[in-house]
Amino acid sequence: MKPIIGIAGNETVMVDADSHWISYTPKNFVTGVKRAGGIPLILPIGDLADVPRYIASIDKLLLAGGQDIDPKHYGQLPDQTLGGTNPQRDAFELALVKEAVTQQKPIFGVCRGMQLLNVAFGGTLYQDLSLRPEKALKHVQVPTPFHQPTHPVTIAKDSLLAAVLPTDQDYQVNSFHHQTIAAVAPKLAVIATAPDGVVEGLEHKEQRILGIQWHPELTCGQIETEQQIFEFFVQQL
Known about the structure:
Blueprint: E1 4-8, E2 10-13, E3 21-24, H1 27-35, E4 39-43, H2 51-56, E5 60-63, H3 87-102, E6 107-110, H4 112-120, E7 125-126, E8 151-155, E9 171-173, E10 180-181, E11 188-193, E12 199-204, E13 209-212, H5 224-235
Parallel strand pairs: 1-4, 1-5, 5-6, 6-13
Antiparallel strand pairs: 2-3, 7-10, 8-9, 8-11, 11-12, 12-13
């Protein structure tokens, strides 16, 4: 039986009017899950009281990219560099993570999704890469197309990612984020890093929870190993 993959949805205005909102997820997440043998199910931002039923209806949870996470969730005030936030999405996804842990459902976070996992387990973020004490690589690769990798990462040999990605050489990834991990949550371990020290992968020390900073949904159609990340999540995590 195909596993049901719940993809936490985002919201946006379809036209220039506050009355015409849509719930969505990028189609490439849907495609990646389907190619991996899963059934994608988009979970629209909803009432927190309904979260247990949302999680009960799926086998695994996927957290996609999107807005910045409100820094109040990790004990900070907003910096000048903070981008747009969505309080309802933050609250809903944090509740999804908590309930998925309770129901022992695997979680995979991508970009914002990885950052949200870190915050959910008690870690913090740099609200912008410019706030790191160390100089950073270019992590927003515009205008380079997102299906094209632009910098390397090093994968830990004893990590979940080692099941599908090489650990004996640098692995090339794309990059599209201006926030990054600061303090790593106590229950999480760093499993991938960029040459500048930016955290590119996290996993839970006890449960089947994985997060990566890059965007495999934008490369899985061109790069086999990126699709294998989806296959690992859907079939093995």
